[in-house]
Amino acid sequence: MFFAQLPFIIYKFSTIGVNENIWIGTLHQNAGQISVLFPLFLISIISPWFLLYGRDFKHVIIFTTLIMILTFFAIAGEKRATIFLVPLWLYLCFSLLLLKEFLNNKQFFAAPKAQALLIFFILSLGVFYGSQKLIPSLNLDEKVGGEISILHVFKYTRQYLTRDYIDPLNNPIENIDQDKGIQLGRFAVIERSFSYISSQNIVHFLFGYGASAMNPSYLLGPDRSDVAYQNFGIRGAASNVVRVLFESGTVGVLLKFFWFTAVFIWLLNTFLNKSNKTLTFILFSAFTSHCVFFFDFLLYSDATWCFDILSPMYFLLLALAFRANFYMDDRIVLKNFLKTHLKIY
Asked: Residue ranges of the domains in the chain?
């Protein structure tokens, strides 16, 4: 699935350029956020593999090549979050392994870990530089290959995430009711959503407005994509927590937080206390993938939950982690586990 995307991404970049609205590899949907969530999900599997099994120069080449390809996938989709999220996920994986080894009284920072940290640092610099150069809005000239500025990146990011309807980024010269391009920033959407629901009566505050409140159903006609603005006066890229808040209220949000937290605690506790390398890899990948879904739920979008692109792989990975932990002790290798319990021959 991953390598099938590569020729399409290269063709898109060479013919269309950096664009978030056209082609996300071969993935048949139009949620541009998948352009960065898909790479993050794969990084959540590739990085644990490299940290646990990377031993020689060949592994370094394979790992760095895959990270570069995944980063290019996100940049070609014009996902500005790439500049921060890819390095963040690399360091998240590294920190988790250090924590495990520290708690298990192993050598805390051996030479292989120093090598991995150096590789992650170099990759992070490459991602930061490449994102600024290739994504127009992240450089001063607003074009591919424009002049880079770290100060501009942080200033633009703050403005983009917190912008109001009248912010200059929106070019608010048209009627806000007619121009759907006038939107709130992601953080502003979350803040206004919680402010709105907290001012409603107790029933709506606790249980929301029902399952159709944020649903852009085709039955609503040409304005279906603007249903949140029509119902609640909120328009912008909304994370899944906003949808849950309006459709099932604070009770729904708390229940989903409880589920996320329960899975977090189980995965982390089991990961930190297992010594079998194969089981550690499965739990490691499941935990970091869980972080991707939690980040998307809380701050980014609802693409992981409303489009069946990543969710089948995610729940398969969780199921594998739970089942492997139940049947697999330190004397069982993965081959026997798969043959005996998953019927894979």
From this structure: 1-154, 185-345
